[in-house]
Design a protein that fits this description.
The complex is a heterodimer of chains A (319) and B (265). By secondary structure, chain A is mostly helical. Chain A has helices at residues 3-13, 21-29, 34-68, 81-94, 99-123, 129-153, 159-168, 176-195, 197-203, 207-212, 217-239, 245-257, 261-285, 293-310, 312-318. In chain A, helix 12 (245-257) runs parallel beside helix 14. Classes of the chains: A mainly alpha (319), B alpha/beta (265).
Chain lengths: 319, 265
């Protein structure tokens, strides 16, 4: 827990205009140089807070989805949240919307996809897991096709690069304005998932077992999917598509403290926050320009996943 | 412990096929009742209906005299524990953690109940000889060990009744005997036990009552020596059987040996 503030202060100091931890603390307290204060308060703090919140939200969402779908290899995109959000953002870019418009478009697209997946599941007559997975599969395919179509008709001079850059995921356009509406919602969704740890334990059992232990499975499953989707859609609207965090962090947390969600979820959220802050710091400072955050998380995430799978987790889960 | 679970004119239709046809059945407190039936007779469906996991197509289930649909799920879970046939867990819960989930129906009353939960879990682990495995991940256990974990979780639930779907399935012979003897002891202590089985012999010496489910209806229901009889068993399994009584035990063997065991038709 103590690591998070340390990482935050170090991240606030890192950048083209480097600040020592002491300078960062002074600037945060409001008595540093005007330059340091401007950098910390206006350039770096909103971005780093956004990175921490995004990492926390994505990890909580991933941990919850893995419990609900009883599958350690799923992430929130199973229900089409990411492809829906990508569609919303691409459509907003095509319609000439500004940053805020793209964010709202992505958020709505993500929720629309989840609603679509649930509706398809209902049409298929299955309220169970299989219906949801199939619904997600179909909606994912539809929105992926729709994004391709939007890319095809986008203006190749400016719209197409904007769509592609957005899909890579980045925090470069974040400011206090975006945080103002996304942060409270993200904190509520993540907090609710943390409070519902015990329910997640039961939902990771088979339906009959969970019911015979007193849980109203269908209602709770929908509620948790709703919260996980909300968290994931918010992160996408903040930063575009940031891969691997939602899949990797729950595994890492389980490897360290085991399966019970009361232990695993808080650590998962903390690791997610620290991981994305570090990844975004790399995105900012590794090159003179900016590397898309999504590329960094994919690169590190995929590599780290090998080591995590080599740990206890995979062999057990494969059997 | 006072307990009563009753099915009245219970019907269940699935996919246009009538699985259960007007079943009347009463499970009384402190009884150990065995349920026999061929594959696909509807035993598991019947158990799931009794637990409120499925809704009957028509008819009624009364738990302690009150319609099951008027009970909240958590209240049912504090009255009846369920041991399903299959147990598969994807996340790496240890044995102790899995058994602790049996405490879920019991409301948390401040921090003190954590101690009560731990005691109940320890008792259950000890009763099923699972203490040496307590910190092992469930996924690493054999099928028989997992079955014992499921039963331990049901015991940790501390309910007056236990419903078990083929609990000896997959257990080695020693554990089959130990588990059935444990169920008998639980019944002697006042718990109500309902289990399905494919082994009439194991019910003969231990059950207070045996019911036979055939083609969606109760074919026979009564004392083990009357039900686990060559005439009923031959009719149930559609194989001519002869019984051998030996002390308190009763065994069956086939009266005829055909080439492949199936009728020529």
């Amino acid at each position: 827990m103590a690591m998070l503030p340390v990482v935050l202060v170090m991240a606030l100091g890192a950048g083209r205009y480097a600040l020592s931890p002491l300078e960062v603390l002074h600037a945060l307290a409001g008595d540093g140089s005007p330059m340091a204060q401007a950098i910390v308060w206006h350039a770096r703090l909103p971005r780093i807070l956004a990175a921490a919140l995004l990492g926390a939200g994505l990890s909580a969402s991933g941990g919850a989805c893995q419990a609900v779908f009883r599958n350690p290899l799923v992430a929130p995109d199973l229900l089409g949240v990411l492809s829906g959000a990508a569609f919303g953002a691409a459509l907003s870019i095509l319609l000439g919307a500004g940053v805020a418009g793209i964010q709202v478009g992505a958020f709505c697209g993500g929720l629309l996809a989840m609603g679509g997946a649930l509706a398809v599941a209902r049409q298929l007559g299955g309220r169970g897991l299989l219906g949801l997975v199939l619904g997600g599969l179909i909606v994912n395919a539809l929105f992926t096709a729709a994004v391709s179509m939007l890319k095809y008709i986008a203006d190749p001079q400016d719209q197409l690069p904007a769509i592609i850059y957005w899909l890579m995921g980045s925090l470069s356009q974040i400011g206090w304005g975006t945080l103002g509406w996304t942060a409270p919602l993200l904190i509520v969704a993540t907090g609710a998932l943390l409070v519902l740890c015990h329910t997640l334990d039961l939902l990771s059992l088979h339906d009959d077992e969970a019911r015979s232990l007193g849980l109203s499975v269908t209602a709770w499953r929908l509620a948790i999917i709703g919260l996980a989707t909300l968290a994931a859609a918010l992160t996408v609207s903040i930063a575009g598509i940031i891969g691997w965090v939602a899949l990797l962090m729950p595994h890492l947390a389980r490897l360290l403290v085991g399966a019970p969600h009361a232990r695993m979820m808080p650590l998962c959220v903390l690791l997610g926050a620290i991981g994305v802050v570090l990844a975004d710091s790399c995105a900012r400072i590794l090159t003179p320009g900016e590397i898309p955050l999504g590329m960094i998380t994919e690169l590190f995430g995929a590599t780290a996943f090998i080591f995590v799978l080599r740990g206890v987790g995979w062999r057990r889960e494969a059997e | 412990m006072k307990f009563s679970l009753e099915a009245r004119d219970l019907n269940f239709v699935r996919g246009g096929r009538s699985v259960l046809k007007g079943i009347d059945f009463h499970l009384r407190g402190g009884e150990m009742v065995g349920l026999l039936g061929i594959n696909g007779a509807g035993k598991s469906t019947f158990l799931r209906l009794l637990l409120g996991l499925l809704r009957p197509s028509s008819g009624q289930i009364l738990l302690d005299g009150v319609d099951l649909q008027d009970w909240r799920r958590r209240e049912i879970a504090s009255r009846i524990a369920y041991v399903p046939q299959a147990f598969d867990v994807e996340l790496p819960f240890t044995v102790r953690e899995m058994v602790t989930l049996g405490r879920a129906p019991h409301p948390r009353e401040g921090r003190f109940s954590a101690g009560a939960d731990r005691d109940a879990v320890d008792r259950a682990l000890t009763r099923l000889a699972l203490q040496p495995l307590a910190d092992r991940p469930c996924a690493e256990l054999s099928g028989g060990e997992r079955q014992r974990v499921m039963l331990a979780r049901a015991l940790a639930q501390e309910t007056p009744a236990l419903v078990l779907d083929e609990p000896t399935n997959g257990l080695d012979y020693g554990h089959q005997i130990r588990l059935l003897d444990l169920l008998r002891r639980l019944a002697d202590e006042g718990r109500t036990i309902l289990l399905t089985s494919h082994h009439p012999e194991e019910l003969y010496t231990r059950a207070d009552r045996v019911a036979v489910l055939k083609e969606g209806d109760i074919l026979a229901d009564g004392r083990p020596d009357a039900i686990i009889h060559e005439s009923v068993m031959s009719a149930l399994y559609a194989v001519p059987l002869a019984q051998i009584d030996h002390g308190h035990h009763r065994f069956f063997h086939s009266r005829e040996t055909s080439s492949d065991g199936y009728p020529d038709a």
